[in-house]
Design a protein that fits this description.
The chain is an alpha/beta fold. The protein is about 35% helix and about 25% strand. The C terminus is likely disordered.
């Protein structure tokens, strides 16, 4: 299965792959396009805000950061899309989904750093919901492949079988240092043709409007920053500063009275 790349930095860039748009029709494709764009922008904004405000001295940690990103992004999406799509919190409040026509779009945190090949990354099979997503998508894909088997090789139906699934996911990677990567596609239950995705598409960063400040964290393939640059380190990873202190003994009561 192919891995595609799309950017949202310019107006008019399409998120929805053409085969998927043909299958769902123009009206649903337009709504899905808008929903994916809003989710990606709100995720990026939530990472930027919470990375900037992250402070371990008041109890912030990886769990509070992930929870804040989830709630802030979901709230932002609800404000942007209003009643046009159904938004529901799932799995004890640690995940959420959008229902766009017949398509279910779920949002998940998947890792800390950008993967070198997203096709090799599988949604957690221990999760009943995620496992069911993969099973349903595999069944939808196989149904199209079985139909195409009766047709001449390399037909359009066979080539577009990967776009039959209705269970789609937006997955994000990052830490309290910022958002590392965004992808969206159709996850599978088991590996097929070297991929755990029927199709998957990378959303290039940054995805925030040009008026916003946004930093992208280093991926696992980016060069390491200079050793003396600690601006991107969390507080507990930074070296302790050397302090020049002038410590004086407090004079006793008799001495203060003499003065």
């Amino acid at each position: 299965m192919t891995r595609m790349r799309v950017s949202v930095k310019s107006v008019g860039v399409e998120f929805v792959p053409e085969p998927l748009a043909r299958r769902v029709g123009p009206e649903q494709a337009e709504m899905l396009e808008q929903a994916v764009g809003v989710v990606c922008r709100e995720l990026a904004a939530a990472y930027e805000r919470n990375a900037r405000e992250f402070d371990p001295s008041v109890g912030d940690n990886a769990y509070t950061f992930a929870t804040n990103v989830l709630h802030h992004s979901r709230y932002g999406v609800a404000q942007q899309l209003g009643d046009r799509v159904e938004i529901e919190v799932l799995e004890s409040g640690l995940a959420w989904r959008l229902q766009v026509g017949e398509t279910t779009l779920r949002v998940y945190k998947m890792g800390r750093v950008a993967p070198s090949d997203i096709r090799r990354h599988r949604l957690d099979p221990c999760s009943t919901v995620k496992r069911q997503m993969g099973e349903d998508n595999s069944a939808d894909m196989q149904q199209v492949l079985d139909l195409a088997a009766a047709l001449p090789p390399q037909t359009a139906a066979q080539l577009e079988a990967g776009f039959a699934p209705n269970e789609l996911a937006i997955v994000h990677f990052g830490t309290d240092k910022g958002l590392a990567a965004l992808f969206w596609g159709a996850p599978l239950e088991v590996e097929r043709d070297g991929s755990f995705w029927a199709w998957v598409q990378e959303v290039e960063l940054p995805v925030i409007a040009a008026t916003a400040n946004f930093g992208v964290v280093r991926s696992d393939t980016d060069p390491v920053a200079a050793e003396d640059d600690e601006r991107d380190l969390s507080f507990d990873e930074r070296e302790e500063p050397e302090l020049d202190l002038d410590v004086r003994d407090e004079p006793d009561v008799d001495q203060r009275e003499e003065e």
